[in-house]
Amino acid sequence: GGTSLSAKESGAAVTAAEAAAKAASAAAPAAEAPGSAAPGSRVRGLFALFPVAADRWLAEYRRETATRVDTSYFLLRDPAEEPRPGKPAPSIGRVAFEKALRPRPLAEAPRALAAAVAALGSQAFLVHARGEDGVEGYWLSGGRPEEALEVSAWLGRGGSALVLAGDGRAAVAGAGEGGALPEVRAFSLVPPAPGAAFGQAAALFGDAFSGGGLAVAAWERGSFPEVELAGLLVFPLP
Fold this sequence. Notes:
Layout: H1 8-27, E1 43-53, E2 56-64, E3 69-76, E4 91-92, H2 94-100, E5 104-105, H3 111-118, E6 125-131, E7 136-140, E8 149-155, E9 161-164, E10 169-173, E11 184-188, E12 197-205, E13 214-223, E14 226-236
Parallel strand pairs: 5-7, 6-8
Antiparallel strand pairs: 1-2, 2-3, 3-4, 6-7, 8-9, 9-10, 10-11, 12-13, 13-14
Helix pairs in contact: 1-2
């Protein structure tokens, strides 16, 4: 199997959220189901969804009225099954919700991911990583999250990792067999259009070090909602 964010790396987030949900259930009556609309409400539904393990999702629901916006937070086992009367889900508070999503130190990340990020340079990076199991998380190499440069990462099969910055700086690393240090290859990409920047690295196909590996990355020019151009770039790994 490949490197997974749903193993011990995501365990702390799940444990914290579950503990908060149990505490909330013991201290208060069952939370109102997101699907039940109160008089005067205009919008009620799922606002944000974050996979923190293969079978755990953190969800934020919002209800908008003429005078305020109410929010509620849940830990779900199935994102397709919204909490509703007769079928509640563990409710957590905003503090626990944000704590569970807080970036973790890069020193605690899989070795291949940490090695690939280090190859990009010495500045502070906020790494948005996704795994083959669909789980995602954030890692911080140093400093404050709002001051760090956000980069995209993908954890592939066999423990490999690909990291890509918006300006095209990139690195791929292997897992490192038998305790050996991960092999790292740094390279750079040129955005397909002048003024464009890279976004999420989508996937690794094949063995990153066999000479036949491929990766996919999103790119765009402009900022939402005024995006001028956008697309996907498929490129061979060095």
